[in-house]
């Protein structure tokens, strides 16, 4: 069995606000340790169940957050930026299941630090189905026939995951009170939960169908302001929908849609308010 593990940060145990997920803030180094320990709980459980390989993809911000010197010695790690497929770099049809850890709710939903890739995005749509990072990444896994078997994060992303993939396992390690306050498990209890839920997910993996993406999907991104939409519309092949901040792109497959999303959001981030 080969397992793919994508690790974001906002949904990690005990992290309530940006002081924990921004490399320039005072709580960031504390959060890196918790994040690494949380990944190790999942990895250890997988190897306890005779996994042959666990590939970990650091999926937050500059994607160099996990402490490699403290990571489980048998895991493989993809770290650093820029990666052609970002949060799902390295995922292919050789994997038996994917786990998303430390994930958060999409931008237009309640949940701790909820957003979709950047804070300039209100909504992503694939053929008019609203998705966040979790949904887009699950579609890429589905393109390769790989089921998303578990999601770890706050209670809100657990609900989002269940709506997309009803039979998957969720491991909510904290409950959102507001976008910057949580009721959380301790790291020790969260680690125990993640180990148990990973084992449950692995045993249940054959009962979960991959989230198959549509053929030739249309990607639509609704931005927060018109300037961001103007920047995104500079990408060839895009259309800025009239009287809106939504930019669309007709893709040949979900992989092209995913890379289009990366380019469009990077362009949109160049918008200033001066």
UniProtKB/TrEMBL annotation:
Which Gene3D superfamilies does the record cross-reference, listed alphabetically?
A: Dipeptide transport protein
The entry's keywords: Metal-binding, Zinc
InterPro entries the record matches: DppA_N, Peptidase_M55, Peptidase_M55_sf
Q: Where does Zn(2+) 1 bind?
A: 8, 10
Question: Is this entry keyworded Zinc?
Answer: yes
| Pfam families with a match to the protein in the record | Peptidase_M55 (PF04951)
Q: Which residues bind Zn(2+) 2?
A: 8, 60, 104, 133
Q: Which GO terms describe its molecular function?
A: metal ion binding
Say yes or no: keyword Zinc present.
yes
Query: Active site: which residues?
Result: 115
Q: Which domain of life is it from?
A: Bacteria
* UniProt-listed SUPFAM superfamilies: Dipeptide transport protein
Name-wise, this protein is D-aminopeptidase
Per the UniProt record, the source organism is Halobacillus andaensis
